[in-house]
Amino acid sequence: MAKLDPVQFAREVRQEVGRVTWPSRKETLVTTGLVLALSALAAVFFLVVDQLIQIVMRWVFGIG
Fold it and tell me: Does residue 62 come out as left (phi exceeding 0), alpha (psi in the -120 to 50 range) or beta?
């Protein structure tokens, strides 16, 4: 069974964090902007599709 050593664990964590390639501020802003834009685009797309389905269902069932 492995021995638990909190000091060794903290040392290994620091080493791993040092190996991480962090994105630059510009990369983070560009990626965030793309996520927000694509989320808005998807919201508009699903709004339009939902409205079209609603219109078709009203026409099919003669409601409204």
Answer: left
What six digits make up the tokens of 16? 């791993």
pLDDT computed for residue 3 by the predictor: 80
Give the Cβ contact number of residue 47 at 10 Å: 10
Q: What is the spatial distance between Cα 28 and Cα 20, in angstroms, rounded to a whole number?
A: 15
Q: What is the DSSP string of 9-46?
A: HHHHHHHHHHH--PPPHHHHHHHHHHHHHHHHHHHHHH
pTM: 0.65
- C-alpha–C-alpha distance, residues 57 and 47, integer Å: 15
Domain ranges (residues) in the chain: 25-64
DSSP 2: P
